[in-house]
C-alpha cells in the first residue's frame, strides 16, 4: 500500500455522492453528498440516529450503500472492505472490536505483514511494531496485558494504535473521545494533529464540542440521513455548532435541590481488586457525587463495587442495610440501580425489543398486579420512557441491537432511572448521547436526587462533573484523595489531585507512565 506522501494531490481525499442506505423502512442515509479534504480534520456531527456511524461504515467499506458512490484518495470507487483497505481507509469504530483474549501487542500487530511470517506473527517484530504505535498513547507496560483486562478507555487507545499500524491514508474515528479521560483525549488530539500535518485525512464523529472546536477544520452536520450543512469551521458556523452540541438549560431540570438529607449510601473498609482501598464514603439523599480520576485510577472500580457488580472486602450499606458485595441482585434488592460503563457487554439485551430492555426485571405496581403483568400499563410505561429519554426511533418493538449507539445508551439510562432507586450509580451516564439527550439525562438524575435518591456518577468530562454534581470525590491509585463540595473546588484542583501533583501544571502533557486499570 502507498504511504500518505506517495498519493497524488487532489484536495479531496474522499468524495461521497448521492449515497443512500436503507434498513428495511429506515432510511439511515437519504442521499448524502459530501467531500473530505486531504490534510484536514472534518468533524461529522448530528443527533443520535442521524446517520453518522452509517456514513463512516459505508466510506470504510463495512457496509454497501443502497445507492450512490464513494471515491477514495486515488479516485477509484470504494465498495467493500478490500477496496477501502487498498485505498488506505481505516475505521476506528465506536465499540472496540479487539480480540479480548489476545495480548495488546498481538491485537495491534495482527494482520500486519511486516510483523508476520505467513499466517504467524513474528513475536519480536510484532511486539516492537506494537510498541512503536502505542507510544504516546499508553504505557509500554500494557503491551503484554490480555486486552480484555484493560478498561474501556485503554481498549479504545489500543484500537487506535491498531488502526495506525495499518498505515492509514484516511482515518475515520467514530466517537473516539466518548470514553477517554483527559490524558487520552490529549494523546488522541496530538496524534490527529500529527497525522493531518503529514497530509492524512481525518473524519471524526463526535458529540463533544471540544473535539470540534480544538480539532476540526471542516464540519458536516447530518440530520435525518441528510447533510444539512457542510463547510469550513468559521466563527459563524462555530456558533451553530456550539448551539447544536451544547445542552441547553432545560425547564424540566430542578434547579435547587433541597438540602442534602440523611445518609443513604455508606461504604466502609473497601478493599478490592487492583488496589482499591476506600476507608469511608457517604452519600446523602438529594446529593449527586461525582467520581473523578484518571483512567486506571479506580474510579470505575469503586462505582462497580458500590453497585454490587464486583466483589470486594468491606461493607456497603443502603439506608443502614448492607448488601452482598459482588452481587448485583443483592444490590438491586437493597435499592441500587446501576448504569455500567460498558453498555454493549453488560447492559443491552441486543436481541430483545426496546420495550423489553426498558422494563426488564421490573416488578413494581406500575407494571404488575400480583403475579400478572399489566400489558397496557407496560406499553404506557415504555412509551413514556422512550419520550422522556428521547429514544429514537420511537418504536418500542424495535430490536435494541438495531439502535444507534447513543440510543442504546438512552435505553440503559432510562431503565436504571425508571426504578425509583434509593441509590443510582452511573458510570459515564451520557457517553455517546447527543446534547439534547444529555440534558434529559442530567435532568432525570437531578430529579431523582430531588426526590431523595443518592446519586454517584463517574464523570471523565469536567464539563459534566461541574454541571451535574454537588460534590466531587477524586480517586487516585484506588483511594479517595479529595472529597469536597463542587462549589469549593476548581477544575485545576481536581486535575492536580487526580494526577498527584501539588500544583496544577498548566503544561500538563499526557503521562503514559500511569498504571492502567
Ligand atoms: N443494522 C441496522 N438495522 C436497522 N436499522 C439500523 C441499523 N443500523 C442503524 N440503523 C438505524 O439507522 C439510523 C442511523 O443510525 P447511525 O448508527 O448511523 O446513527 P448515528 O448518527 O451514528 O447515531 P449515534 O450518535 O447514536 O451513534 C438509526 O435510525 C438507526 O436506528
Automatic annotation (TrEMBL):
Residues 14-249, 255-502 form the ABC transporter domain. SMART domains: AAA (SM00382). Signal peptide: none annotated. Keywords: ATP-binding, Cell membrane, Membrane, Nucleotide-binding, Repeat, Sugar transport, Translocase, Transport. One of its GO terms (molecular function) is ATP hydrolysis activity. Pfam families: ABC_tran. Residues 497-517 are annotated as: Disordered. InterPro entries: AAA+_ATPase, ABC_carbohydrate_import_ATPase, ABC_transporter-like_ATP-bd, ABC_transporter-like_CS, P-loop_NTPase. The keyword ATP-binding applies. PANTHER family: CARBOHYDRATE TRANSPORT ATP-BINDING PROTEIN MG119-RELATED, D-ALLOSE IMPORT ATP-BINDING PROTEIN ALSA-RELATED. This is ABC-type sugar transport system ATPase subunit. It comes from Nocardioides kongjuensis.
Amino acid at each position: 500500500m502507498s504511504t500518505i506522501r506517495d498519493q497524488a494531490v487532489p484536495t479531496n481525499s474522499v468524495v461521497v455522492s448521492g449515497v443512500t442506505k436503507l434498513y428495511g423502512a429506515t432510511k439511515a442515509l437519504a442521499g448524502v453528498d459530501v467531500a473530505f479534504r486531504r490534510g484536514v480534520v472534518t468533524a461529522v456531527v448530528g443527533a443520535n440516529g442521524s446517520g453518522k456511524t452509517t456514513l463512516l461504515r459505508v466510506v470504510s467499506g463495512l457496509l454497501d450503500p443502497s445507492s450512490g458512490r464513494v471515491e477514495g484518495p486515488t479516485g477509484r470507487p470504494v465498495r467493500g472492505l478490500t477496496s477501502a483497505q487498498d485505498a488506505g481507509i481505516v475505521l476506528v469504530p465506536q465499540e472496540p472490536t479487539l480480540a479480548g483474549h489476545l495480548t495488546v501487542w498481538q491485537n495491534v500487530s495482527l494482520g500486519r505483514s511486516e510483523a508476520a511470517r505467513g499466517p504467524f506473527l513474528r513475536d519480536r517484530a510484532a511486539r516492537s511494531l506494537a510498541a512503536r504505535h502505542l507510544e504516546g498513547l499508553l504505557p509500554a507496560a500494557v503491551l503484554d496485558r490480555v486486552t480484555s483486562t484493560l478498561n474501556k478507555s485503554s481498549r479504545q487507545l489500543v484500537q487506535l494504535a491498531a488502526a495506525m499500524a495499518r498505515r492509514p491514508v484516511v482515518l475515520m474515528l467514530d466517537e473516539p473521545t466518548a470514553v477517554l479521560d483527559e490524558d487520552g483525549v490529549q494523546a488522541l488530539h496530538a496524534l490527529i494533529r500529527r497525522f493531518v500535518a503529514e497530509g492524512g485525512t481525518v473524519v471524526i464523529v463526535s458529540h463533544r464540542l471540544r473535539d470540534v472546536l480544538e480539532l476540526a477544520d471542516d464540519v458536516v452536520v447530518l440530520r435525518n440521513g441528510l447533510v444539512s450543512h457542510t463547510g469550513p469551521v468559521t466563527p459563524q458556523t462555530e456558533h451553530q455548532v456550539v448551539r447544536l452540541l451544547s445542552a441547553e438549560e432545560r425547564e424540566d431540570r430542578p434547579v435547587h435541590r433541597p438540602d442534602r438529607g440523611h445518609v443513604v449510601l455508606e461504604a466502609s473498609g473497601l478493599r478490592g481488586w487492583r488496589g482499591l482501598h476506600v476507608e469511608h464514603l457517604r452519600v446523602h439523599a438529594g446529593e449527586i457525587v461525582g467520581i473523578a480520576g484518571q483512567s486506571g485510577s479506580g474510579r470505575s472500580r469503586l462505582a462497580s463495587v458500590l453497585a454490587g457488580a464486583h466483589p470486594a472486602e468491606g461493607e456497603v450499606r443502603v439506608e443502614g442495610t448492607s448488601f452482598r458485595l459482588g452481587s448485583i441482585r443483592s444490590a438491586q434488592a437493597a435499592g441500587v440501580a446501576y448504569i455500567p460503563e460498558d453498555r454493549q457487554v453488560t447492559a443491552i439485551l441486543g436481541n430483545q425489543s426496546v420495550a423489553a430492555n426498558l422494563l426488564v426485571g421490573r416488578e413494581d405496581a406500575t407494571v404488575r398486579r400480583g403475579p400478572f403483568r399489566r400489558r397496557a400499563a407496560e406499553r404506557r410505561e415504555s412509551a413514556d420512557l422512550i419520550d422522556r429519554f428521547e429514544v429514537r426511533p420511537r418504536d418500542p418493538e424495535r430490536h435494541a441491537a438495531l439502535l444507534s449507539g447513543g440510543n442504546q445508551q438512552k435505553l440503559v439510562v432510562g431503565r436504571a432511572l425508571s426504578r425509583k432507586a434509593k441509590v443510582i450509580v452511573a458510570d459515564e451516564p451520557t457517553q455517546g448521547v447527543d446534547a439534547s439527550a444529555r440534558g434529559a439525562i442530567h435532568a432525570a438524575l437531578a430529579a431523582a436526587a430531588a426526590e431523595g435518591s443518592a446519586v454517584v456518577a463517574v464523570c471523565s468530562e469536567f464539563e459534566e462533573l461541574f454541571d451535574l454534581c454537588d460534590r466531587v470525590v477524586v480517586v487516585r491509585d484506588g483511594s479517595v484523595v479529595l472529597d469536597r463540595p463542587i462549589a469549593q473546588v476548581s477544575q485545576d484542583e481536581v486535575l492536580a489531585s487526580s494526577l498527584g501533583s501539588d500544583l496544577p501544571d498548566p503544561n500538563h502533557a499526557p503521562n503514559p507512565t500511569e498504571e492502567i486499570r
